[in-house]
Specification:
The protein is α+β, with helices and mostly antiparallel strands. It has one domain: Phosphatase 2c, domain 1, CATH 3.60.40.10. It has six helices and ten strands; from the N terminus they run E-E-E-H-H-E-E-E-E-H-E-E-H-H-H-E. About 45% of the residues are buried. This is Mucin-2. It comes from Streptomyces hazeniae.
């Protein structure tokens, strides 16, 4: 199964998004982490943790089980429960593909997964953002009354220790094209009313991933472009 990831740093000091894949006995996991903050410490932690998540999800053959295990590991890190600590963390999305079985997806935070069916022209959003904008929408606030900055306040992330972990999950068909995207990759497209599908369907996975992040940065507000990361995979 062909797959590729591409990144642009935007105006941030560090690239703190990370992707990883891992395959065990034909089951492949695709993971994307969107680090919270911009520092070398966050960058290193996010890269290592993306690999850990992909390995865990492939080993158990389930996106949700793998993400819950990774969330528990992060929550148990020394100092994580200290309200004054500043340990690295990230939003995360992971997908697990086994041929002829439903694709499973799980997430925490506002990293997203999309699925474009084979031969289709409309991508389905598989995730639901865990951020204050979505919370306010769910509580009946009109979209026009919600300040843009609310979507940058996430209510779930790896290692979050306030109550039960908020982890979403979904399934879809095992064929087609998968996209995992950080908010820096999908938000500028949505804000600029740029259709996702022509970019996602553009050529092989490497071409599509490059088109997505390049277009995202080109459409981001001047001097406020976030890290943009896209992982694209053809599923068979």
């Amino acid at each position: 199964m062909a797959h590729a990831a591409r990144q642009r740093i935007g105006n941030r000091s560090h690239q703190c998004d990370a992707t990883a894949t891992h395959t065990i006995d034909g089951t492949r996991a695709y993971a994307l982490l969107d680090g919270i903050g911009s520092s070398s410490e966050v960058q290193e932690w996010t890269r290592a943790t993306a690999r850990r998540l992909a390995t865990a999800a492939a080993a158990c053959g389930s996106a949700e089980t793998g993400l819950r295990a990774l969330h528990a590991w992060a929550a148990a890190e020394e100092g994580r429960s200290d309200p004054w600590s500043d340990l690295p963390t990230a939003c995360a999305v992971v997908a697990v593909h086994t041929p002829r079985r439903p694709l499973t997806v799980a997430w925490c935070g506002d990293a997203r997964a999309y699925h474009l069916p084979a031969g289709g022209d409309t991508a389905r959003l598989l995730t639901r953002d865990h951020n204050m904008r979505q919370v306010m929408l769910d509580n009946g606030y009109p979209p026009a009354r919600i300040r843009p900055g609310r979507r940058n306040i996430v209510v779930s992330y790896l290692g979050h220790t306030d109550g039960e972990p908020l982890i979403g999950n979904d399934i879809t068909e095992p064929e087609g094209r998968l996209l995992l995207a950080s908010d820096g990759a999908y938000e500028p497209l949505a804000d600029g009313c740029v259709p996702l599908e022509p970019l996602l369907a553009a050529g092989d996975p490497a071409t599509a991933a490059r088109a997505l992040v390049t277009t995202a940065i080109d459409n981001a507000p001047a001097k406020r472009a976030d890290n943009a990361t896209a992982l694209v995979a053809d599923l068979t």
